[in-house]
Design goal:
This protein is an alpha/beta fold. The protein contains 13 helices and nine strands. Strands 1, 2, 3, 4, 5, 6, 7, 8 and 9 form a nine-stranded mixed sheet that branches. It binds adenosine-5'-triphosphate and magnesium ion (MG).
């Protein structure tokens, strides 16, 4: 499949998955890929987004106001789309990021509805929390309402939402429906209805689940996928299988003999043992990975995109570049 076509399937991509599986990393890789393809991208994070900033090599702090984390010119100084298509409505190749919090979204909502002074008092007295707790779903509706507003205003060619970890993500995405059912009328009901309309339109919104090839994350991805379809009615894009070890052959070979066969001097004492232990670990890891990927493929009828495990302590702009090219290869191979 052609990359731009893939990225243009929906206006919003919600990246969801179990805690720590690489949602933020995948969101950044998708954003970067889309920017490479000449789109103007906005990444919306919901909590502390320090990992996101680091992936783009952006040194400032991310906050409610958007900032440009990747300039329109790519790392090679090339300002145009990789496939040459002038597809962008905004600034091609740019990535902006912002953090949406429900408090800030509520304040903005009240402000734009002529209630700015009231909002200020709510904050000062701590009443904001009371309101948000008293109306289940209001925080989520406000945040998604803000995302919807950005999407409808054409704020970017593609909005990528770095969603909270799974349990929260389900509540996050389903509570607008709950609120729409519970609220009889009024502006909040209208807002919730509009959010539901956005979530259930596959041309506007899709969820990309991220998982890693281990048992619990695979179980959770499968369960979440079905629940998202049933309870939210949102379209599902491909699953990103992150942290895949590249498969190595020859792990069964005896290191000492392999060294001799390769014409190397005899291995120093202890080295053959260490190599054999490392090979055993890697073999076990590969077997686990193959078994879990087979389970995932069997239980979840979705396309898969694989991202490699990168052997570095911290991921930055260079590693992001590698993940982006892996994503591009994976997308190109999709039917
Ligand atoms: N492919 C990879 N190779 C190596 N390390 C990775 C890879 N993907 C993610 N990581 C690392 O794993 C950790 C978790 O990744 P990330 O922050 O993207 O996950 P997350 O799902 O957003 O986590 P959270 O649920 O806390 O928001 C980070 O330290 C990140 O650098
Ligand atoms: Mg994250």
């Amino acid at each position: 499949m052609e990359v731009t076509g893939f990225l243009r399937r929906s206006n919003i991509v919600v990246v969801a998955g179990k805690g720590g599986v690489g949602k933020t990393t995948a969101a950044a890789a998708l954003a970067s890929l889309a920017a490479d393809a000449g789109l103007d991208v906005l990444v919306v994070a919901l909590d502390d987004a320090s990992g996101l900033a680091a992936l783009f090599g952006y040194e400032g702090q991310l906050g409610y106001d958007e900032v440009v984390v990747r300039q329109p010119n790519g790392p090679d100084g090339n300002p145009t789309a990789v496939d040459g298509s002038p597809a962008s409505a905004g600034v091609p190749g740019r990535v902006r990021a912002r953090v949406l919090t429900s408090d800030a979204a509520l304040l903005e909502y009240l402000g734009t509805h002529g209630l700015g002074r009231f909002a200020g008092r709510l904050v000062r007295t701590g009443a904001l929390d009371v309101v948000a707790t008293a109306i289940p779903g209001i925080r989520e509706v406000l945040i998604l309402g803000k995302v919807r507003q950005l999407e409808e205003a054409g704020a970017a060619d593609l909005i990528i939402l770095d969603a909270p970890a799974t349990g929260h993500a389900l509540r996050f995405l389903s509570s607008s429906g709950g609120l729409a059912d519970a609220a009889r009328g009024g502006p909040l009901r209208a807002q919730a209805d509009q959010v539901v309309a956005m979530l259930t339109d596959p041309a506007r919104c899709q969820v990309v689940l991220v998982t890693i090839p281990e048992e619990t994350p695979v179980n959770e991805a499968v369960e979440t996928a079905f629940r998202l379809e049933d309870e939210v009615g949102v379209a599902l894009g491909p699953v990103i299988v992150n942290c895949c070890y590249p498969l190595l052959a020859h792990l069964d070979e005896d290191p000492a003999r392999a060294a001799v066969a390769a014409g190397l001097p005899p291995l120093p004492p202890g080295v053959a043992d260490s190599l054999a232990r490392a090979a055993a670990f890697r073999r076990a890891r590969q077997e686990l990975q193959l078994a879990q990927r087979a389970r995932l493929a069997e239980r979840l009828p979705l396309e898969e995109l694989e991202l490699p495990y990168l052997f570095t302590a911290e991921l930055g702009a260079t590693e992001l570049g590698r993940l982006v090219s892996e994503l591009a290869t994976g997308i190109a191979a999709l039917p």
